[in-house]
Amino acid sequence: MATPSQGTTLHIAGTAATPEALTAVTVGFPTILAITGHAGVANGDVVTFSSGFTGADAALLNGQTAVVNHYATGATNDTFAVNIDTTGKTITVGTATATPTAWIKVGKLTDIKGTSDTSPDIEVTTLDSTTKEYQPGLPDTGNVTMSIQCDDSDTGLAACEAAFDARSVKSFKITYVSGVTPIRTFNGYVKGFPKIGDASKDGVVTGSIEIKRSGPVTKS
To answer: Which of 3, 38, 97, 100 is the most exposed place for a label (fewest CB within 10 A)?
Structure first.
């Protein structure tokens, strides 16, 4: 069944929220972390781990940032998964915490357009080739563009403008209204922001925001 788009939301990362205590770690891929009742850690959240993990391979988790997935294989009501490979490693939870990012909803969106990821063609033709031969290069992650109604009072739009002015890489989250994995979390920087919007008679001031993605998209 096709996914309806009405109700889709976009959030930009704000300040760090309250650290949540972890109670256990199960090594593997993905890594499973226990947290009582999920507390303040929601699906699709970006969390930063403290340096409280212990064990010979604790550096794989200490200080790392990852995306929460409550629906991955092995996750339960009191655990969540992160896409970090700790298979066969020695790690104990110690006093580790997970600090989620507080999200700010970006309002006044009229559409979201995501460009397809593309891989460049690398020619590997040799003198023994009978036709030209190619292999794929590193994917270009593309851009996400949103059409907006300009509103200086919207905190999400203000956060996007601040990110543009600071030229900073931020975490973003797009949430669809349905689907097996309805959340898309990714990093990127605001490449374009409408400092002056478009105005027309019998209309409202409009514009567009362009986000250049950096790195992979995590589905959760």
So the answer is: 3
